[in-house]
Design a protein that fits this description.
667 residues, Immunoglobulin-like, 19 helices, cytochrome c-type biogenesis, membrane, transmembrane helix
Length: 667
């Protein structure tokens, strides 16, 4: 789940402004042997280590290469001094299910380590080669392709490293993966704590427990202090649960929980059980001996008695809070160690608030709504929500292992039915065993029903291929949609224009494609020739197969009708893939003016073009040119603001017509 805050968007814009004209190197590599003393017959490792800048991550090599991100690839120059044992293996790489790529990816943060085992066959030992990798940042919205070489030698017993190391990198800082993720868990848990208050097991206990504190001592100040401690004890108990979970699981086990099919199917079943409990099918209760033991300790009085009273509340209310607490722990289990702790802290703060606030302001007790059938309605509503959210875990397993059970339209169909039933329940058209008679529909209940049915109406177009951007983080990717009416229309349109006909014969169009049915080119010279012939400006897109931020721009900005209209009608689009591995004919090889190396693939040639001309190596990066290859607007980077992108395109069209250019290129 990705939470987008306004201040983060501002930082992205500011940062991307500074990043223009800057060749980024977010990962600094060091290569060495694992042994300092080497002799023939030894088995040792070639160790690849990287210090990675904050907010950046490097993709590993142990996930499905068809997903999209570029796997790190090593090319060893073989010789008789050694023999490779197996392949290069990542050490403690993170894994998670990525919504955009629709599968499990593996990556490193802060630091990376990979190892290649070798057998020493003779001395001197000489191991050399090259490797390529991709680095991306969620914070800046950029992706960078990188390559490096290594050259290690051992003449006789001592290791001599002749690799030219890059600039020394600062020691990586150990911290949680994403503060946005922690805030998301905290907010989700806090809302769960507020919802738990309005359940039949908890709500009636507020006046009862607060009155106990206010009347158990002649000193009201002392009673309030005990009430404060009571609330603090609730927070401490739940936070301890989260801490215990974090310590027992650890980050490695958390990665397993978030990606493997066994825990995800288990979590799905747990959510279904919790939903059935909320619907009134059965009660989830704690063992009576545990509750009785806690109650017997309440009579000790003082702060100790307040603690055991809080513990009793936790046990007694488990039948209502258990499903919510379980949902929070399951939702945070796939994150870093801090997430379960933060989740329980958020839940317990919200849960303990009414007890401490009513103790401070006892007059508020008289204004509290009375307990009644509405409390059970809260449980049922929560049951519907658990039913919908639990489907997400089954979806993760389904996408990761390609079972084909929950394609996008199947998932949406279930959600549409669940929330439609919730709307009917709110209107009193659907009843469960513990529901009291609903004589009339209150205004708040009606407004909730309106919101629920509006959400259902919003989802219905998704059954026919609508993008449903607001739900992109919760539903399967659009690629799993069997019936996409937009795709069908595009495939059958065949407008017959010159642009349409030429696009089908464009170089590399048999394996490179543009989104949203756009036609264009994938070779700079061919695209510029077409632009000159059609007398149109050029929209040049520096992109990559494994650039997740490029896909976000295409999904959220290019899809805007105004943007799409301009790209389709007013520009010749040239997509410059910087990570494509297509080998070029020898006559098309170039020697880079930037680093002096030969560029033998389409991707390396395009990447060199970007660096040599714009002194930047991050994607996505967009340039507007006239048919002579001159810039007619300042380039743009990652920015999910369709309105600004329309202004960018309009500026290019205006300057093209006025034959106006801007100075951007570095050569």
């Amino acid at each position: 789940m990705k939470l987008k805050f306004t201040f983060l968007a501002i930082l992205v814009v500011v940062f991307s402004g500074f990043s223009f004209g800057q060749v980024l190197q977010p990962a600094k590599w060091k290569v060495e042997f694992s042994n300092k003393e080497v002799k023939v017959g030894d088995q040792l490792d070639v160790v690849f280590k990287a210090a990675i800048d904050k907010t950046w991550h490097v993709y590993s090599n142990d996930f499905d290469p068809e997903l999209g991100p570029v796997l790190i690839k090593f090319d060893f120059t073989e010789n008789s001094s050694y023999e490779r044992i197996g392949e290069v293996k990542p050490i403690n790489a993170h894994k998670h299910h990525d919504e955009i790529w629709g599968g499990e990816v593996s990556y490193f943060e802060n630091e990376a380590e990979m190892r290649q085992s070798i057998l020493v066959k003779e001395l001197p030992l000489h191991v050399k080669g090259t490797f390529e990798y991709q680095t991306c940042s969620d914070a800046t919205g950029q992706c960078v392709m990188g390559d490096d070489n290594f050259d290690l030698q051992v003449k006789g017993g001592a290791v001599a490293v002749t690799q030219k190391e890059k600039a020394e990198a600062p020691a990586p800082v150990k911290e949680s993966k994403d503060k946005k993720g922690l805030w998301a868990v905290f907010i989700f848990a806090f809302l769960g704590g507020l919802a738990a208050i309005f359940t039949p097991c908890v709500f009636p206990m507020i006046p009862m427990t607060v009155s106990f504190f206010m009347h158990s001592s002649e000193n009201k100040a002392k009673g309030r202090m005990q009430a404060f401690f009571y609330g603090f004890s609730i927070i401490a108990i739940y936070t301890f649960i989260g801490t215990l979970l974090a310590v027992v699981m650890g980050p490695g086990f958390a990665n397993f929980l978030s990606t493997h099919w066994v825990p995800n199917v288990f979590f799905f079943l747990i959510f279904m059980v919790f939903a059935a409990s909320f619907f009134g099918m059965f009660e989830i209760t704690m063992p009576s001996w545990m509750v009785n033991k806690s109650v017997s300790n309440e009579d000790k009085g003082g702060l100790l008695g307040a603690f055991f009273m809080a513990f009793t509340l936790v046990l007694v209310s488990f039948s209502c809070t258990g499903p919510i607490v379980g949902a929070i722990l399951v939702a945070s289990a796939g994150g870093e160690v801090l997430m379960p702790i933060v989740g329980m802290l958020g839940f317990s703060i919200a849960f303990a608030m009414p007890f401490t606030l009513f103790a401070i302001f006892p007059g508020w007790l008289n204004k509290m709504p009375k307990s009644g059938g509405w409390l059970n309605s809260v449980k049922v509503v929560l049951g519907f929500i658990e039913l919908a959210l639990g489907l997400k875990f089954l979806s993760i397993a389904d996408q990761t292992y390609h079972w084909g059970i929950l394609d996008r339209e199947v998932y949406l169909a279930v959600w549409i039915v669940v929330f439609a039933l919730l709307g009917l329940y709110l209107l009193g058209k659907l009843k469960f065993s513990h529901d009291s008679e609903l004589k009339f529909v209150s205004v708040p209940r009606l407004l909730m029903a309106v919101a629920t049915f509006s959400f259902v109406v919003y989802m219905i177009p998704g059954m026919f291929g609508a993008p449903l951007k607001a739900l992109s983080g919760y539903i399967p990717p659009q690629a799993t949609q069997d019936f996409d009416i937009n795709q069908i229309v595009r495939n059958n349109a065949g407008n017959g224009s010159a642009v349409h006909q030429e696009a089908h014969t464009a170089m590399y169009s048999d394996f490179l494609h543009l989104p949203h049915g756009l036609n264009g080119y994938f070779d700079y010279k061919e695209g510029m020739a077409a632009a000159k012939k059609q007398n149109k400006p050029v929209f040049m897109d520096f992109t990559g197969h494994g650039c997740v931020n490029c896909r976000e721009m295409e999904a959220n900005v290019w899809s805007d009708p105004q943007v799409l209209k301009r790209l389709r009608e007013d520009y010749v689009v040239i997509a410059m893939y910087v990570d494509d591995k297509t080998k070029l004919p020898k006559e098309e090889w170039i020697v880079s003016s930037y680093d002096g190396k030969k560029k033998k693939t389409l991707g390396k040639k395009n990447a060199d073009f970007q660096i040599s001309n714009y002194n930047i190596n991050a994607q996505p990066y967009y340039c507007l040119l006239n048919s002579d290859g001159e810039d007619i607007a300042s380039p743009r980077a990652y920015d999910l603001d369709a309105g600004k992108f329309v202004e960018f395109l309009d500026e290019g069209i205006k300057n093209f017509k006025q034959r106006k250019t801007v100075a951007v290129r570095v050569n």
